[in-house]
Amino acid sequence: MPKKSDYLIDRRQFVGGVVGIVGAIMSAAVGLPLVGYLVSPALEKAEGQEWIPLGTASALEPGVPALFTFSQLRQVGWKRTKINYAVYAIADDTGHVTVFSDDCTHLSCKVHWEPERGAFICPCHDGVFDREGNVVAGPPPRPLDRFEAKVEDGQLMILVEA
Ligand code: FES
For 26, 37, 53, 66, which has the most beta carbons within 10 A of its beta carbon? Predict the structure, then answer.
């Protein structure tokens, strides 16, 4: 038959248990906010959109794609990094401007405009797009992505993720 002392903890065990519980609570109180602080930048999503000026729209020659570049500060993990982008803008005879991404829709290699072929060429797998960004040849599954664009006070602007 078990003795009463077999079910009771002694004072040393009790104090050890209390110290352990208090230590765990204090560790959680300090540790959880610290973990949140360290992890949150990696989980943050950019919110909203912004209009980015590319340059003067009057520089566009109708029917001829022109290369524009812009930079954005982006949160990449814990670091704010300046990232450079390139886009192609083409104006039609009415002055309407279409702006394409230079990312190939196959595997995101950079396309470039070849005036002598009258096409955007992707050097990675010979993807070919016409001046409207439509796929002409190669593996790209869809046309070049387009940006919403407007001309304001003579400035060509595109809408991008902030
Ligand atoms: S990445 Fe452009 S064709 Fe493959």
Answer: 66
